[in-house]
Amino acid sequence: MEKGMALYQSAQFIDLWTDPEFDKIHPPRTVAPHSGIYRCVGCGVEIAVAEGHLLPPIHAHPHRLGTKEAWQMIVYADHRQKPG
Ligand SMILES: [Zn+2]
Hints:
The termini are far apart. The protein is mainly β. Helix content is 0%, strand content 20%. The protein has one domain (15-79). Strand 2 (36-40) and strand 3 form a beta hairpin. Strands 1-4-2-3 form a four-stranded antiparallel β-sheet, with no helix packed on it. It contains no helices and four strands. Zinc ion binds next to loops. This is Protein L.
């Protein structure tokens, strides 16, 4: 667990997907538009947030000084019922 990025074990549960939602940068303490894993663009810290909940406020994690503190969704959690 030392790679410094999100990890997974089974590739069958994760799909590569391109969507502008992954490009959006969200300021601290704003509402997460989707459930998923968000990454601080300045220091790389990752958090899990549920849709509609607030992203962490500024200075809530040991952030690297001098870098931008904001959140980008890196993994989307799909809550929809699956076929079959
Ligand atoms: Zn940070």
